[in-house]
């Protein structure tokens, strides 16, 4: 008879103690120190937290599909909306063995910055993140790789959404009606350019210390929405509301929108709101009562979801489930030994329809792995279910300028379970208009990116094309 040194109750008790005392990640050893020393995370946790077979008492193993027949064994490893999708709506998840290579959890430059700058961040008297030594803007990477508070976890998400200094995502969205029929197909081009919290080159873009990022979105299809553009410049001070500017071709002018526009669809039929982006679509100090409410293992969609070899445009067409068999994309998931559950309320938005959000972040890299919102009555409302990972499929590798695999999001489900509407976002190679995904400015000319996509004049020009 084998007697386990660490049982499930031991891990559960340890996680509960860490939440109560505000301690960092890891059970057998501190997670981030283990990662920095060994390049992997397994030694920080007992076997019971790194094996899906042990978590499900042998009912599920790597290579299996999780579906309605066996999901009860994995219910404790998923958010409540994912459980409902699998148990009632025909969703399925393919299981793989956990990834042990920490380099596959980050873009190369972002990981290097996180290692280099570990321990250099703090909150100032206003609640903003600063480099402790200079009291200036953050200098790149996760400011708090060992998350001890809810605010630290949200800061990791907020300061660098896509974990690149500059990203442009070619996105194809398939929006579905509640009966599973197609509603809209949108092509959109999403630009993020950090002016601070950067990992390479000039630590402050064009000297703009008072800003965090430029962000814009530009629709290229279908014809009736082509040219619709939105620009959201973010201040570094997270107490300030970003301005929202929009260009709508039918009005032929740029107009400014109120802050509450963050909680509405930006074009007809989308369940996605600007507030939903990365689980941190609003400045973090415009939300409050932010706290860690739990720690524990979770199934996450990481490596193994990029379709660069099997689909010429990188799209995930493994549609299944729902009323017409096309409501979900099949994800490959793995067991993360520790994810941090954080709750927060929109205290800066008295008219927001959201009452509370709950975000789970992976303790290994601080990235979003699950996100749900509740309405003002406290009822479950929406899910943001994203897959992140290196751009590797088989022998195909999309490499960055360092010769390392590019790393980004691959797909997202935006599911409004109250209305039954679903958006399936695909991170594509290219969309209508010839706009292609890229994570480095051509020839390093980031100013050209700003001039073309991230000013009021730019979105008016794009809309007029």
Automatic annotation (TrEMBL):
What single Pfam family name could you report for this chain, choosing any that match? DUF1329
Organism of origin is Panacagrimonas perspica
Record's protein name: Uncharacterized protein DUF1329
């Amino acid at each position: 008879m084998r007697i386990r040194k660490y049982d499930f109750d031991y891990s559960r008790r340890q996680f509960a103690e860490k939440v109560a005392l505000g301690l960092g990640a890891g059970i057998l050893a501190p997670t981030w120190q283990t990662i920095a020393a060994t390049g992997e995370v397994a030694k920080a946790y007992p076997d019971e937290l790194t094996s899906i077979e042990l978590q499900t008492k042998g009912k599920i193993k790597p290579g299996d599909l999780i579906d309605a027949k066996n999901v009860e064994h994995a219910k404790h490893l998923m958010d409540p909306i994912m459980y409902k999708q699998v148990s009632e709506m025909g969703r399925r998840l393919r299981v793989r063995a956990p990834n042990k290579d920490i380099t596959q959890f980050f873009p190369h430059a972002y990981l290097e910055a996180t290692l280099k700058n570990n321990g250099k961040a703090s909150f100032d008297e206003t609640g903003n993140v600063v480099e402790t030594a200079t009291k200036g803007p953050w200098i790149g990477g996760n400011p708090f790789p060992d998350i001890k508070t809810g605010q630290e976890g949200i800061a990791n998400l907020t300061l660098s959404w896509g974990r690149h200094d500059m990203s442009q995502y070619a996105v194809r969205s398939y929006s579905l009606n509640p009966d599973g029929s197609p509603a809209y197909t949108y092509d959109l081009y999403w630009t993020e350019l950090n002016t601070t919290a950067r990992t390479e080159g000039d630590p402050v873009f064009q000297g703009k210390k008072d800003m965090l990022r430029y962000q814009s979105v530009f629709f290229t299809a279908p014809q009736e929405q082509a040219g619709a553009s939105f620009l959201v410049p973010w201040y570094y001070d997270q107490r300030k509301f970003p301005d929202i500017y929009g260009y709508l071709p039918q009005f032929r002018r740029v107009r400014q929108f109120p802050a509450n526009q963050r909680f509405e669809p930006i074009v007809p039929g989308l369940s996605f709101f600007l507030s939903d982006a990365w689980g941190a679509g609003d400045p973090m100090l415009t939300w409050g009562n932010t706290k860690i409410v739990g720690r524990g293992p979770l199934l996450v969609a990481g490596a193994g979801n990029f379709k660069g070899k099997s689909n010429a445009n990188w799209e995930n067409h493994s549609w299944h489930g729902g009323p017409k068999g096309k409501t979900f994309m099949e994800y490959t998931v793995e067991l993360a030994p520790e994810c941090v559950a954080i709750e927060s309320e929109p205290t800066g938005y008295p008219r927001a329809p959201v009452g509370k959000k709950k975000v789970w972040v992976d303790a290994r890299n601080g990235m979003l792995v699950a996100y749900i919102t509740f309405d003002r009555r406290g009822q479950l409302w929406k899910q943001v279910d994203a897959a992140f990972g290196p751009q590797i499929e088989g022998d195909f590798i999309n490499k960055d300028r360092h010769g390392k695999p590019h790393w980004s999001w691959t797909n997202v489900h935006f599911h409004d379970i109250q209305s039954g509407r679903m958006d399936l976002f695909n991170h594509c190679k290219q969309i209508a208009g010839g706009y292609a995904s890229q994570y480095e400015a051509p020839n390093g000319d980031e100013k050209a990116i700003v001039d073309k996509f991230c000013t009021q004049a730019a979105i008016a020009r794009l809309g007029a094309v």
